[in-house]
Amino acid sequence: MNSDFKNKTNNNNLRYIDWSEGNAHPKMLKIEDYSNLKSSTMHFARKFDTEIDEVILDKIDKELIS
Known about the structure:
Structural class: alpha+beta
Strand content: 5-15%
Shape: extended
Mean pLDDT: 93
Helix content: 25-40%
Distance between the termini: 38 Å
Strand order of the largest sheet: 1-2
Low-confidence stretches: none
Order of helices and strands: EHEH
C-alpha cells in the first residue's frame, strides 16, 4: 500500500481464513466448515489437509464441476 493509488485499492486477498481457534496458525478447514466457506465472498481458502479431511475438498470439486 505504498503507492499513490493506495486510496483506490481494495486491500483484500480474497482468501477465507478461519482464525476462530485463537492459535498462532489458522484453523484446518473440514467438512463442517463447508457452509461458512460457501457463503463467504472469498475466492480462495486456507488451510486444508487431505490426511485430516479430504471430504471437504471432494465436495468443493463436485460443486465447481457441476
